[in-house]
Amino acid sequence: MKRFGAMAAVALVALLLALPLGLVAAQGGETSVNVPPAVIHGTAMADGLPVPEGTMVVAMAGDQKIGSAMSMEGGEFSLQLPGGGEMVTFMVGNRMAEIEGIGSEVMLDVGARKILVLNADLAPGGAEGMMGARGPAGPPGVPGTSGADGADGKDGADGADGADGADGVDGKDGAQGATGTQGEQGLRGEPGPPGASSGDPMGIIALIVAIVAAIIGVVAIIMGRRTA
Question: pLDDT tens for residues 91-104?
């Protein structure tokens, strides 16, 4: 039994050793290794001035493009490249760039960290220039002529009548006027015509006698009726 246990242990160890070798054989004999990239930060320049934001920065290994990035404000850029001991050149826009203090190319080792300044010269007579930095703002334009006056608007509708105002306060009685001066005496009227005559005195006496006679007659009648 002990012999069989020892043989089983040897077989298990052999199996564990054979697994990684089988994996390597299945991948063509190459081991899988995580290779850290090379990281480059820098500034892209054109004739000594930072390139405009959005300019393309391209890294080349020979004729092969291995990475690219767009420049940010102030020409700054950042690249992650597969470093492996190869020589790398750079293009800014569509122009080859020089690496300040190094030359036209730089060697990138695995996991390298570099800060580079790239400068692309815009040589006169080139096939195609690169976009320059934004120029200063131009002067304001000449003011245009004034437009014609607009047509007069229509009359608005009549507003509603306002409310009647409150009655005013009665005025005070005026002061009594001064007494006028006495007028002059009127002129004396002309004398009237003479009055009609009062009649004959005898007619008046006859009238009085008739009245007395009538009174006596009435008294006599009354007395005769009392004696009867």
Answer: 999 899 999 999 99
